[in-house]
Amino acid sequence: MRKRKNYSGNVKSDKSHYNPALIKKQKEFYKNAKNIKKFKKMLKQQTEQTDPSSAQKLMIENDGAVMKENKGESEKRRNGLEELYRKKHEEKERERMEREAALMAKKEEREEAQARRKALRDKMLKKTRKGQPLMKYRIQHLLDTIQVSTQIKPSKSP
């Protein structure tokens, strides 16, 4: 027996991904609907108090005013969002530059250390004509190590 796939489920339930732009649009839509509902309710109350012909004129005038007001708010919001985006972008750029500077400093430090080790290795591996190691560089290295260790010890134990 074959199992059949169930296609009777809600199509929207399949879309489980997060979309902030869609959420923002929905919020704005519901907010506008709420404002319109309040406005119409207020108009209905006013029409009951006054005559119907003046209520229609008032409704048309107020509807235009609400639309203009909403446009002004949306422009302010858009400017605020643009400014917020710009600040965030500048902050990210600054952080990226700091990270790059730190990476460059580490890279230079690593290269310097590598060059020092290579120079020391070259000196330590030098041989005489008969194949014996040159003691001059080995003794110098031992002296340098002792001097560094004696300089560190007094500063640690005061």
From TrEMBL:
It holds the Pfam family rRNA_processing. InterPro entries: Fyv7/TAP26. Residues 1-23, 62-116 are annotated as: Disordered. GO terms for cellular component: nucleus. Residues 66-116 have a biased composition (Basic and acidic residues). Signal peptide: none annotated. PANTHER family: THYROID TRANSCRIPTION FACTOR 1-ASSOCIATED PROTEIN 26. This is Uncharacterized protein LOC107492525. It comes from Arachis duranensis (Wild peanut).
